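Summary of Year 1 activities. Much of the first year was spent building the evaluation harness for sequence design. The harness presents a backbone, in tokenized form, and records the residue chosen at every position. We chose the following record to illustrate the format because it has been used consistently in internal testing since the harness was completed.
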């Protein structure tokens, strides 16, 4: 069971630049991944609130960093813009790279990154880029292999084992699990990870 109540959550603000970020106090966890990795579905499932991720998908907000606050306003979940979408112009990709890399490397209240990857397409080049930014700043990262229901049990477990093998040596900072919003697999596990990161300051 999770300790924090993830369905008491509300949209706080969107940011498109360093200046637009909310106060860097308290604790927050960011969610990142390629577009279509299942980030919105995962956020909806973890919080139990269906309109939540719709907020991030509102036209004009998909390229922004979207902040949501829990009942304790000093605890936040953060939806990063999805990457890897071929049709996005280079200028926007560059801007995205700048604000996300700055955010990941400079934000003091950021306690961890949930990195989502479709289990059928894990560890693409931009996923590695995210992992490199995290490792460079020792930001704890937890990978969700999403849509685990799309593979059979054995194949899903094998993919998770392969991922862990690829990341051998980084266990101190990187953990991983299977996730499916359809079957419900892995929801409690990721909530417990969020609890751990968001509560750590009080430990
Ligand atoms: P986002 O772009 O990362 O926010 O991805 P979405 O949450 O919008 O999901 C992309 C597509 O994958 C949608 O068609 C979802 O219905 C589908 N999807 C997301 N999670 C799952 C899952 O756990 N299982 C299955 N089978 N499909 C999923």
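For this record, the design step produced the sequence shown next.
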């Amino acid at each position: 069971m999770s300790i924090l109540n993830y369905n008491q959550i509300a949209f706080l603000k969107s940011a498109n630049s360093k200046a637009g970020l909310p106060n860097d106090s308290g604790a927050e966890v960011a969610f990142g991944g390629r577009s279509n990795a299942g980030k919105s579905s995962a956020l909806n499932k973890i919080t139990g609130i269906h309109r939540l991720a719709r907020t991030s998908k509102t036209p004009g907000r998909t390229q922004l960093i979207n902040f949501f606050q829990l009942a304790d306003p000093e605890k936040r979940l953060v939806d990063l813009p999805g990457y890897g979408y071929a049709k996005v112009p280079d200028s926007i990709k560059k801007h995205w790279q700048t604000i996300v890399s700055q955010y990941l490397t400079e934000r003091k209240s950021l306690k961890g990154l949930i990195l989502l990857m479709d289990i059928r397409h894990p560890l693409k080049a931009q996923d590695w880029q995210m992992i490199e930014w995290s490792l460079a700043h020792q930001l704890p990262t937890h990978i969700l292999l999403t849509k685990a229901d799309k593979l059979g049990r054995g194949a899903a477990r094998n993919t998770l084992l392969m991922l862990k093998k690829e990341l051998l040596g980084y266990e101190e900072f990187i953990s991983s699990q299977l996730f499916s919003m359809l079957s419900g697999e892995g929801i409690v596990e990721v909530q417990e990870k969020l609890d751990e990161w968001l509560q750590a300051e009080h430990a």
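The pocket of guanosine-5'-diphosphate is lined by residues 33, 35-41, 82, 146-147, 149-150, 180-182 (CB under 6 Å). Quantitative recovery figures across the full test set are reported in Table 2.
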